[in-house]
Amino acid sequence: MAAIGVELGGPNVTLSVRRGDQETEIRCLDGEATLEAVLGRVRDARDEAAGAVPAPVGFAVPASWGAPRRQELVYLAREAGLGEVEVMAGPEAAAVCYVEGLGRELEAGAGLVVCDLGANTFDVTVVVRGEDDFQHRASASTAAVGGREFDQLLFAYLSGRYRDTDPDFWDKVDAPATVEDEALRAALLAEIRGARELISKRPRAGVPLPVGERDLHLTRDELEACIAELVDQAADLAVATIAEADTAVTGLILVGGASRTPLLATALAARTGLEPVLPAFPEAAGADGARIVALANAPVADVKGRPNRRKRLVVLAAVLVPLVAAGAVYGNQLRDDDPPEAIASESPEPTATAASEAPTSPTRRATPAAREARRPRARRTRWSPKRPRRSRRATRPPRPPRPPPPAASPRSRA
To answer: Do residues 302 and 7 lie in contact, with contact meaning Cβ atoms separated by under 8 Å?
Structure first.
């Protein structure tokens, strides 16, 4: 069965799409688009992934979204044709990804630190695992640390290092005066971001210039020297948040696209004493958790796409079977304890011979003669063809003759 998870609230909208046992597909949408447009794209993705059964959809939203804003999302999703959707906070969705998606152990009552290093902010949240959910304990955020801040620091470093090679180019991108200069600066920052992400897997990466054929080079040591101060601020914030939560934490997960920075994991491990866990797609950890929750809470459906009532039928059968069995046992006991006249009332009265032959054992097994006597007999019809009709006139005695009327007296004649 397919399922879709969506993470909202960042500069990009992340989709986690999975069809059965296939690998998870990660898609990124423009976060600047309207919510209605995003929901339309989500509906299209669900229609592509769904088979006979519509794919359930789950949303991971910022923890700052209150109940009214979440209810509005549920309403708009229903209006967009997505049906009933699951909505949960991003840190809780990341915790679900940590436990269910990555298979990490987290006992009930233990705390998990969720460090989200995105493009614009660094958010730290401590959640505690309950019996059926994750409970928020403490959180903190700063806009001074983020992927874009890293890129700006690297941009300043490269500008100072390579300015002498092409002063006109660096003047344009340092202080853009036209739309073309703005586009040139944006293109260079995109190349720097790509190199920063590559350095998380290799010791160095090239930074192609948007114009010309010259490439710049950036090493991991240079990267870490540029962002070390911001990473220290992030580690300080994580330590302070853990202290505020005042609970025993046993795990730490890194989410957000910029969390791939190796220096961040090293600093957090040194300051917190925990081993950071980095998913394969940290930018989609929240979407993965929302997808897992949506799939777990989706109604079971049969192959024709209709809701499966197996659970209700099983419960109904579990209730009815004992009742039917109890009724059968009670009926047998009642029949065994009935007096002879109550049983005889259900069939024609047995003959004296059959009654004398009735057994007196507790099992009350009737003899063949008694069973024959109890067997209902066919009712005799009044006019049987084997017995000719008798004439009533033949058996009725003759009536005596009527006496003659008395003769009239002479006085009455006069």
So the answer is: no
